[in-house]
Amino acid sequence: MRRVYLDNAATTRLDPEVLEAMLPYLREEYGNASSIHTFGQRARAAVEEARVRVAELIGADPSEIIFTSGGTESDNLALKGIAEAHGQRGRHLITSQIEHPAVLESCRALERRGFEVTYLPVSPDGLVRVEDVHAALRPDTILISIMLANNEIGTIQPIREIAELVRRVRAERGQPYPYLHTDAVQAVGKMPVHVDELGVDLLTFSAHKIHGPKGAGALYLRRGVRLVRQMDGGHHERDRRSGTENVPAIVGFGRAAELTRQQLPDRIRHMRALRDMLEQGIEERIPFVLRNGHREQRVPNISNFSFRFLDGEALLIRLDLRGIAVSTGAACSSGSLEPSHVLLALGRPRDLVQGSLRFSLSKDTTREEIAYVLEVLPEEVERLRAMSPQYLERLAARDP
Fold first, then answer.
1. 0.85 exceeded by the pTM?
2. Residue numbers annotated as active site
3. Among 102, 134, 251, 318, which is most buried by a count of CB atoms within 10 Å?
4. CA-CA distance, 93 to 342, in Å (whole number)?
């Protein structure tokens, strides 16, 4: 059976060059990077070289990169670490209703510990309004966390404008608060990301979204910003994240970051062309569909559609039986019976939310794969809709 993978927002295929870089550190170079003997120092050198490559990808200084196990840990470290370090100055945070569960659940955990969180609404296109951020600011606001690109609909948030607002507020108040964090897991590798141009204090990203290995992520922490580590133990990562470094995965992260930086313009052009081909084909061949998210202000690899008169999970299963892998939303929410919180925040009715699919592309996606999807998808949509009384009634009403 032909296999087509269009769930790259969940994870990407490991690049062969990344695997080659990792292999020595899974075999002969097995030292602990904290050991002082030669085995350990060779591992340490590999980690620090990877730190340079990862920092270069986002325009940071290597000393500002904290290696973690992935995006979820980085988000937890950012929100909880800042809250605990600066809670005596204020106990209010601002985020949006469409954040990744790693941010939303961290906020809820902080609420249980006495912090207050404002969850901002978004426009029907999925955009946070800068004026809403301004209105939500309080004297005790210590952190704003707004994602750079949404993992379900791909909408890019106005982080630069929010950062400019934060700078003005800091200058007016004569204090370093609030800090600004962005979850950039779905943005890095899909658009240019430079921490100084964005104006953020903390930024989260992950290796397995850019054709690196699972189990390696990073938190950018601007020099001078203090946080409390969330795992007690040794003094790894400059005393900001305890635990023996995952040397092979970090090395792979470094190589993936290097390849991403070198190939980014070509990757963007490739993914955008195929995404446009997919969307045009769906809208031309399938009636009663709605594309979710901002039409222009979005990353080039994510396309989210709501299909009326069917269940998205049923369509996902039908496509999987034809060899096509897609998703109904965030991978972290797989198995959940709850409808997408992102699409609900856009104001979509529940029937459209439950009939939605996310198609996410990568540098490895081909035109032939998109053509196959456009051949199969209308057939499977029609098969499922044929079992819907509402759809049949709608067809009958249109038939002269």
1. yes
2. 332
3. 251
4. 20
